[in-house]
Amino acid sequence: MDKKIGFSLTGGGISLWKKDTREKISKKAKERWNNISDEKRKEFAEKIRIANLGKKLTEEHKRKISESQKGMKRKEGTGKNISLRKKEEFRKRAKRKILCLETNETFYTAQEAEEVMKKRFPKINKDGIKRILNNKQKTCGGLHFKYIPID
Predict the structure, then answer these.
(1) How far apart are CA 43 and CA 98, in angstroms?
(2) 145 and 99 Cβ atoms separated by less than 8 Å
(3) Is 59 helix (H, G, I), strand (E, B) or coil?
(4) For the whole model, what pTM was predicted?
């Protein structure tokens, strides 16, 4: 052991393997990964997710992750798919809906109600709807709302 270098046999950035050997190892690793079933991939992802639960990232680490993700190509509509999935999960857990008494339309969230009704009723907003539902206000944009249980 060299005290200047430490336990490593080489300085940083120098590989012990030749370039063609590294390429062969990389190729084999990619082949193994491509031959794994979707079930196994999901299992790996879940194990990693569980291992990382509760870990706090430093601001520097968050910045580095953000920079590494910039410019990456993603599948069409990735962000949209995530938000749709979250909406579906929320709807499964919801115990009540919001009913507009004038139009008889139902919504899962005040935000959804605002998005759908904003074109017809420009003065409507989600905060006003929430105040009505919490009995702090009577109307929002001339409309009345109330909670109803989900059947």
Answers:
(1) 38
(2) yes
(3) helix
(4) 0.46
